[in-house]
Amino acid sequence: MKLSNATLKDLPDGIEGPSYDRAALSAGIVHIGLGNFHRAHQSWYLHRLMQQGLAHDWAILGAGVRPYDAAMRDRLAAQDYMTTLIELDPEGSRAEVVGSMIGYLPIEDGNAPLIAAMADPAIRIVALTVTEGGYYIDPVTKGFHADHPDMVHDAAHPDSPRTAFGAMIAALKIRRDAGTGPFTGQSCDNLQGNGAILRQTLVSLARLSDPELADWIDRHCTFPNSMVDCIVPATGPKELELVRTFGIEDAAPVTHENFRQWVIEDTFCAGRPDWDRAGATFSDDVHAYETMKIRILNGGHQVIADVGEVLSVETISGCMAHPLIGPFFEKVEREEILPHVHAVPGFTPEQYLELIRTRFSNPKIVDTTRRVAFDGSSRHPGFILPSVREGLKAGLPVEGLALVSAAWARYCTGTREDGSTVARNDPFWADLQPRAVAAADNPQLWLENRVLYGELADTPGFAEPFARWMKILTAGGTEAALRSYLGV
What we know:
Elements: E1 27-32, H1 36-40, H2 42-51, E2 59-63, H3 69-77, E3 83-87, E4 94-98, E5 101-104, H4 112-119, E6 125-128, H5 149-156, H6 164-178, E7 184-187, H7 194-209, H8 211-220, E8 226-229, H9 237-245, E9 254-256, E10 261-264, E11 281-282, H10 286-310, H11 316-321, H12 325-337, H13 349-360, H14 369-373, H15 376-394, H16 399-411, H17 429-439, H18 444-447, H19 450-453, H20 460-476, H21 478-486
Parallel strand pairs: 1-2, 1-6, 2-5, 3-9, 6-7, 10-11
Antiparallel strand pairs: 3-4, 8-10
Helix pairs in contact: 4-6, 5-7, 6-7, 7-8, 10-12, 10-13, 10-15, 10-16, 15-16, 16-20, 16-21, 20-21
InterPro entries: 6-PGluconate_DH-like_C_sf, 6PGD_dom2, Mannitol_DH, Mannitol_DH/Oxidoreductase, Mannitol_DH_C, Mannitol_DH_N, NAD(P)-bd_dom_sf
Organism: Pseudooceanicola albus
Keywords: Oxidoreductase
């Protein structure tokens, strides 16, 4: 059956669809960045509330700001903005249809439809999933990147911006002038202090064109920090065929693991859904949850993805089953990451590592090493180097983490050990690749990328093992380096 409102009554046996009247829903959230993660995570939590008869005035309007978002809009519009979610459990998969999104705004230059929607007083939350590297953070200062061409454009053309942030500011100006009040800006990206970073970007951009508006936004809008977690692979031919085995024709299905977590600061200036009734956690200490997740899970992904790519291991579960990569993950996590992570309610670092090991090893989740290795220039500084700095500060070893960085440099040379080519996989690939090739003979050249490494380039406790591992990787290969580190 083709997924649509008209066919919901005909869903195959065993597949749960919306029990609520979708025609009676009204929008309360605009979500910018309708990738797989949002549809498997935030959209699902809201759907579960709606199944309980709650939050029917909090439905989602999807949005995008790039031309390529139009293709996703077309796919979702053809099936009334619903998504089939397929949970991939080693003990058996199941599917459900999520209906919490009721529209997807047209994508136009200048973002007029998006601005108009966010200016509507009924919209009380504007949420985003725009990736870790999408917040215009200056790579050197970690502050606002005011000189980025997108920010220069939006500051000069505040009524016809090209970015989500410029559109949010334009909508907030309308709301301020009309006296309809602020909305909450809610980042759902994997950034420590993601709400604070969203505030920084929005207020700083507004200040370039309208300082009084910037002050109003800073004073009246709220930006809750949050931690989000669910492994959600990309959708390709395999997933499109999988959804058909459930008896559904869906042009944009989403597969996901059998685990979700969402920890949120309870700071919403215009109200919020009761997400905790669907399993989310409201906490005043999001930072502790963020640190555990970013260091152990996201950092763990980077530990194994680059060596997996270089050795042509296609999936994360394949890396965990590899006789060298799996033990490499375990040793680095236990000896060099866990010592700097504190317990949170419900989890010690050791218990969380056990959970992550199980999740990464799930063979039903076809999560590619290429996807996880993407944008290392954002992920390594965010997920790996904080553990390096804390290890050095504590006088503990960082040998394995230095090898992780060296393996990333080896990956960025653009070839795998079987001779195949690594296609461009980083926004800064044009700079990283020649630097990585040169670092095979002079490892220090890689660390001289101070935008990424800063003072670590001059810190012997990190720079010396990095150089040693680069030489082993170049002369003996990745398996030789892993064996040396593991002592096998």
